[in-house]
Amino acid sequence: MEQLIENKLIAADKAFSEWKKVPFEDRQKLIAKAAEILKNNSEKFGKIITKEMNKPISQSVAEVEKSALMMNYYADAENILKPEKVDSEYAYSEIHYVPKGAILGVMPWNFPFWQVLRFAVPAILAGNTVVLKHASICFGSGNAIEEVFLEAGFPKGIFQNLEVGHKEVKEILEHDAVKGVSLTGSGRAGGEVASIAGLNIKKSLLELGGSDAFIVLDDADLDTAAKVGAQARLQNCGQTCVAAKRFIIDEKIEDVFLPKFIEEYKKFVPADPMNKETKIAGMARPDLADDLEKQFQKALENGAEIIIPLERISDIEFSPGLIRVKEGNPILQEELFGPLGMVMIAKNDEEALQMANDIPFGLSNSVWTADKDRQLFFIENLESGTVNINRMTSSDPRFPFGGTKASGYGTELSLLALKEFVTAKTIVGN
């Protein structure tokens, strides 16, 4: 291992030995300071995001502001990690929550600030330290976040950005100083990292891909569903794990809803990401655009029909596409990470549910209906970490975020995230 990286891991371990003794409330004060720095410099940090991965600048600034909002949530959070008394016959009868140590974050490029901070903040507040392996195109974001922590007054070694590639992850995760890993990314990357963690008896948390359903039933508010549906598929150029990817439409409203949806969808025209009015820009890298084009062809070869063609404008830009897909098309077993949506038609609620669940993933779903009984039917039967009623999926610091099936395991956000990287230590005796 390169000496510089070795030194950073040792520094993270050394910082942990002191940080774990710092009172919860004092850690919260530092998080509040870091949140303030982020909020006050949202334009500056937003530009870093846009330059690195082409997110429209207004969305980049919103990402930084949302990160600050989440940090303030944790800065004000109840301390659920203080020792808990258990009613028993013993004099000592408690559960203590003990932080694990240095935690490795393996993070993606699609939300370069949000993904990192939503993992790092609860881990650090719980008393751990963090080392970050960011996506190769996002080293600027990683370094900027490290500077924010230092400027806020966090001790050195609490949060460190490691400028390393995928090859180094195995060695870092095997290092004695590292006690766990949180990965947001593809299923393949998640499987590899989890297997290394497992072999070394280290905790792992995985937030992987999705192919979320956006189910529109015949009693829905169709105008709102069409407008929100287009945004749910195309925000961040469709490069979102919780983007709506499959639009499952009740056949009774197909003729009314589809024209509305197409009209909204066509409002997303690629433009300059630095322009504040831009709603969609290019993808993060040309190879990712190549991958999406191949998936589009694969879908068509297997019987998908074009509703709006996916047209490539440049090496990274597309005019967003929409295809009609039937059950059995192998493309349904994959995640489409870009501006291409799929439309499916369901005869009734039971078929809509079956279509929604018939994928390897289980991240989030959105259901549009005014009927409470129908809402309940989907709430109870959808196989996903989140179900949204009459709204698109968007993460909120107050609520747990995570998936089931091939979408991963473990919880981010909410107070539950504070317990991901701690050991529940039982104290019993007289």
Automatic annotation (TrEMBL):
Annotated keywords: Oxidoreductase
Residue span, Aldehyde dehydrogenase domain: 7-427
Pfam families noted in UniProt: Aldedh (PF00171)
Organism domain of life: Bacteria
Keyword Oxidoreductase recorded: yes
InterPro entries membership: Ald_DH/histidinol_DH, Ald_DH_C, Ald_DH_CS_CYS, Ald_DH_N, Aldehyde_DH_dom, GABD/Sad-like
Record-linked PANTHER family: SUCCINATE SEMIALDEHYDE DEHYDROGENASE [NAD(P)+] SAD
Protein name from the UniProt record: Aldehyde dehydrogenase family protein
Upper lineage: Bacteria, Pseudomonadati, Bacteroidota, Flavobacteriia, Flavobacteriales
